[in-house]
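ok so I'm stuck.
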Amino acid sequence: MSSVLMLALAASACTSAATIAAAQTPQDELQLLLQDYVDPADPGVVVVIDDNGERITAAYGSANLETREPVQLTDRFRIGSVSKPMVAAALLSLVDDGLLALNDPLTNYLPEAITSNIVNADATTVRQALQMTSGIADYLGTDAFLDAVEDAPNTFWTPAQVITFAYNEPA
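replied:
not stuck anymore, here's the structure
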């Protein structure tokens, strides 16, 4: 079993002996672990551990705090700024693998249909984008974006849709 999977399952050492005995598989153990730590009335948790194709998943808690509808493995979560360090870690892994260079311009990796519409995209490096020092406008505070979110608060925006709010915004 992989070290990632072992690490996740090692967390279950704090669970009761009865819980561990009830688990038949790593999937069962993860599910029981969540049940030990998450109150079913609390906001839900979805855990996915994927190590070179070996995948275990579990979900527990509420998707809706008012109705107590249980969270499902297929539920989507808005994670906002929590994704920034994850994206940075993934990009730095690509740098380590020699597939990306921090001093390369964004135009090496993004299509012209996007970069031609974003002020400073041609002069911005991957490093600057990661450090948030690129000079590219923060579209999240624009009237257009705020109006769109207010008009359709339950919309799941795709990256292609969201990036258009940065188009032609001053640096």
